[in-house]
Design goal:
Helices cover 48% and strands 0% of the residues. It is built from five helices and no strands. It is globular, with a radius of gyration of 16 Å. 34% of the residues are buried.
Length: 159
């Protein structure tokens, strides 16, 4: 440590106050960053999908992952695996867009594997997302640089 006190949130938990960019990377203190997603927001499934899609379309998959994480932690246990897999896809896209090909492809494949064989739920095109993730993982592993907004999946309907 550099002698500085750890950043803490209002409840006293350690939480970095450094601003973040659109891909969730920490910036220097005082830099202009992207507003963080509030934690612990309970949304209806349709609201979760809509908010995550908005963030994905804006090139902010790290923030979309936080929306999915809230859903998996606050929703019914039978839906947790769905939301966790979607969070993994969002984090995979985050890593791929940051240039971390190994981590990005690994998380895209892990999320796709967790979704494979599931039926559609809440209007989410599960089979389309599995196909999108596998195709993107292959391109990332082949060394293709990708942009988060350009590669954002469609959560419902054709991907």
């Amino acid at each position: 440590m550099d002698g500085r006190e750890r950043d803490r949130d209002g409840a006293g938990r350690a939480r970095s106050a450094r601003p973040r960019d659109g891909l969730g990377r920490p910036l220097e203190y005082g830099a202009a960053g992207v507003a963080r997603q509030p934690e612990g927001v309970v949304r209806a499934p349709g609201e979760t999908v809509a908010e995550a899609q908005r963030l994905l379309d804006a090139g902010m998959p790290f923030h979309a992952h936080e929306v999915f994480e809230d859903a998996w932690k606050s929703g019914p246990p039978e839906d947790a695996a769905l939301w966790r897999a979607l969070a993994q896809l969002a984090v995979g896209l985050t890593h791929a867009a940051r240039g971390n090909a190994v981590g990005g492809a690994r998380l895209l494949r892990r999320g796709a594997g967790a979704l494979a064989g599931r039926g559609n739920a809440y209007g989410i095109d599960v089979a389309g997302l599995v196909g999108w993730a596998g195709e993107l993982a292959g391109r990332v592993e082949a060394g293709e640089r990708i942009g988060a907004a350009a590669e954002a999946p469609r959560l419902s309907g054709p991907v």
